[in-house]
Write a structure and sequence with these properties.
By secondary structure, the protein is mainly alpha-helical. The protein has helices spanning 10-27, 53-68, 79-107, 118-135, 138-157, 168-177, 200-218, 222-239, 252-275, 283-286, 289-306, 308-320, 323-347, and strands spanning 183-185, 190-192. Helix 2 (53-68) packs across helix 7 (200-218) and helix 8 packs antiparallel against helix 9 (252-275).
């Protein structure tokens, strides 16, 4: 059964919310020196559970566009207004990311302002795929996805090296944006940003994969969605022999591997929540996703700058006696605080949109 135009599925909000909660959990350990392995990103090549979080969110951005934008784009008269809305919202998210990084630079005395970031990547992907949802046919969307995967793979496979700091993504970001990068060494003149320009090609592919998956879900083509997930996992697994899974480069094999798991999670959430009536756990985070991410970022900066975060970690360590457990306890407590905030907002039907 197809969903009605503009219909909002509780499963999408729930899965988005659980993804945001996972973001807060892995981004806010009490002590970065003591984190359990599954809650850390792979150092370079590889894919840990934490490396699934951001791709899940971007794929859900595409899924949401399939429900909120794509159905209305069938009316050609609405397309200019839809396109303006997509671009304007992306610009607001971009500005929010820039303001957050300005706050980090000022409050934490970071050496360089960082130009790129998570919110900036979300904005670019939402704008690019949103415009494709407005003006592109499904065939064109599929062609663009294939071009992104094959074109980016060709760039990486013909490079001299994919090692840290000397790979094509790092070199391009250094040439264009140094020193405003996540990582910058003025002595060697090398830098890197995991959310930089070239690797955004892979992130765009993830978001576009979400748009196509969302259209299958909206049309009620659940077997096709499951098949697409299985095919993506297979291709991602096989493709890792040619290009390893790598979040920082957002390699095509990483797009397919993480996208396959995200589509399976989407299908499972739909079956359990929308069809069988299971509780939509995470929904409160999901309906205020950007607010939760941005607000938690501001809170983190304030806690670190004031010394409160270090005091909380010290208290947890004294209570628990184990550094890794204390670090995890701080992260869980942080998520719990933001769950309470999201519960309060949802109870009052306050949905803050950027």
């Amino acid at each position: 059964m197809s969903a009605a135009p503009g219909a909002r599925l509780a499963s999408i909000d729930a899965l988005r919310g659980m993804t945001v909660a996972a973001m807060l959990l892995v981004n806010n350990p009490g002590d970065w020196g003591h984190v359990y392995a599954p809650l850390q990103h792979a150092v370079w090549d590889g894919c840990t559970p934490t490396d699934l979080v951001f791709p899940f969110f971007l794929l859900l951005v595409g899924v949401s566009l399939a429900f909120s934008v794509a159905p209305r784009a069938h009316d050609t008269a609405l397309r200019p207004a839809l396109a303006r809305g997509v671009v304007q919202r992306a610009l607001r998210i971009l500005a929010a990311g820039a303001v957050l990084h300005l706050l980090i630079w000022w409050a934490l005395d970071v050496a360089h302002f960082r130009l790129w970031g998570v919110l900036q990547r979300i904005a670019v992907c939402a704008a690019g795929v949103g415009l494709l949802a407005v003006y592109g046919s499904r065939r064109l969307q599929g062609v663009v996805l294939l071009a992104l995967l094959l074109g980016y793979a060709a760039v990486l496979m013909t490079a001299d090296s994919l090692a840290p700091l000397v790979n094509p993504a790092s070199r391009l970001d250094t040439a264009l944006f140094a020193p405003w990068l996540y990582q910058w060494d003025p002595v060697t003149g090398r830098g890197h940003d995991p959310e930089g320009l070239l690797s955004t090609l892979g992130a765009l592919a993830t978001t576009l994969l979400g748009l196509l998956a969302g259209q299958l879900l909206r049309a009620g083509r659940l077997r096709a969605l499951g098949s697409a997930a299985g095919l993506a996992l297979l291709l991602g697994w096989v493709g890792a022999d040619l290009l390893p899974w790598n979040k920082q480069l957002w390699t095509p094999s990483y797009v397919l591997w993480t996208g396959g798991w995200a589509m399976l999670a989407l299908l499972l959430a739909h079956l359990l929540i929308d069809q069988r009536g299971w509780p939509a756990l995470g929904r409160r985070f999901g309906v205020n996703a950007i607010t939760a991410y941005l607000g938690s970022g501001v809170m983190t900066v304030g806690l670190i700058a004031s010394g409160a975060w270090a005091a909380l970690q010290a208290s947890a360590l004294a209570l628990l006696g184990d550094a890794a457990m204390a670090s995890l306890a701080c992260a869980v407590a942080f998520v719990a605080v933001w769950w309470a905030i999201m519960w309060w907002l949802d109870a009052r039907r306050l949905y803050l949109k950027i």
